[in-house]
Amino acid sequence: MHTEISQVDGISIVRIQEKRIDAARASDFRAMFQELIQAGHRRIALDLSKVEFMDSSGLGALVGGLKLMGDKGDLALFGVTGLVESLFRLTRMDKIFPILGNEADTLDRLRT
User: Fold this and answer.
1) Which of 39, 62, 80, 86 has its CA 20 to 30 A from that of 99?
2) Measuring CA to CA, which residue among 106, 72, 111, 76 is closest to residue 94?
3) Residue 88 belongs to a domain with what CATH number?
4) What is the Cα–Cα distance from 67 to 61, expressed in whole angstroms?
5) Could you tell me the residue range of the domain that residue 64 belongs to?
6) What's the number of domains the chain is made of?
7) pLDDT tens-digit readout, 77-88
8) How many other C-beta atoms lie within 10 A of the C-beta of residue 97?
9) How far apart are CA 10 and CA 107, in angstroms?
10) Could you read off the pLDDT of 6-15 as tens digits, one per residue?
11) Please, which pLDDT band fits residue 70 given cuts at 50, 70 and 90?
12) Please, which residues bridge with residue 78 across strands?
């Protein structure tokens, strides 16, 4: 899975560079979370602005990443639009994952 990762104030900004997170990419998505967490990333801002489609496999990988973090970290999403936003609302995962409007708001939330 192609990502770009940067750091701001100890927060890892992970920019997903894929248009789809589906069954074909879900295991790579899950592995990306494992690598980040094992490398010590504890506060993650996940930018989904380039993701146009996510299926239940992709959502399951995201839930798996949240479980891996447990109470040792914090995860917030931004750039969630279109079909991906609809998926989060339909599955009520927007109640589980903090979804913010932009990067600045997401970083503010993760700083506290």
Assistant:
1) 39
2) 76
3) 3.30.750.24
4) 10
5) 3-111
6) 1
7) 999 999 999 999
8) 16
9) 10
10) 999 999 999 9
11) confident
12) 47, 100
